[in-house]
């Protein structure tokens, strides 16, 4: 029995010796200094500081407060003019200010001016051709007795094709009561800052 126990003990000890050694325990990270930890933590938790309004926004705010309280330049017009070169954008706002007493829809003025500024020359020609074609169609089908005149067509070209088509639709829908479509269109153009060709001041679009 003693020999058997000795043999069993030897087998166990030999088996344990054959097992691979356990991996070394990972080293604990070195503690960072309290001062540095506080600085990093404060920077990470601090909310981003809001940026103040830019020069364009300040100018628009000024125009709204001084001239356009009842119909301020809206967010869409702000975004549109912000897409331009800042110098050119400020020129358009300066033009708008000079015509402020006559302009009832400053947002429309700004958006039309921006569209004209960004349009390629050949696109402007195509748009003007569409406006002229639509005016001739209205004259031939709706306003034979009192056709839309050249000054009104020119004013619509100054406003751009999108706004012109909206106004053409308005006069067509009101045709039964519309005695002077040219006057209606030119009044709308003046209200939005785009005077007919030959009128003092001209339009915003170049």
UniProtKB/TrEMBL annotation:
Residues 16-56 are annotated as: Disordered. This is Uncharacterized protein.
């Amino acid at each position: 029995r003693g020999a058997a126990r000795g043999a069993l003990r030897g087998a166990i000890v030999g088996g344990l010796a054959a097992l691979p050694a356990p991996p070394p325990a990972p080293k604990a990270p070195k503690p960072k200094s309290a001062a540095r930890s506080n600085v990093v933590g404060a920077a990470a938790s601090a909310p981003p500081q809001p940026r103040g309004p830019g020069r364009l926004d300040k100018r628009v705010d000024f125009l709204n407060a001084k001239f356009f309280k009842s119909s301020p330049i809206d967010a869409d017009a702000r975004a549109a003019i912000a897409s331009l070169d800042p110098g050119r954008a400020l020129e358009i706002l300066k033009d708008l200010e000079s015509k402020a007493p006559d302009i009832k829809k400053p947002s429309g003025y700004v958006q039309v001016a921006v569209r004209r500024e960004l349009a390629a020359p050949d696109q402007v020609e195509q748009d003007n051709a569409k406006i002229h074609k639509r005016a001739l169609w209205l004259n031939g089908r709706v306003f034979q007795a009192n056709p839309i005149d050249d000054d009104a067509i020119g004013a619509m070209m100054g406003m751009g094709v999108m706004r012109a088509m909206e106004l053409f639709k308005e006069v067509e829908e009101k045709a039964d009561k519309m005695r002077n479509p040219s006057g209606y269109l030119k009044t709308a153009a003046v209200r939005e800052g785009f005077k007919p060709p030959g009128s003092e001041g001209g339009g915003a679009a170049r």
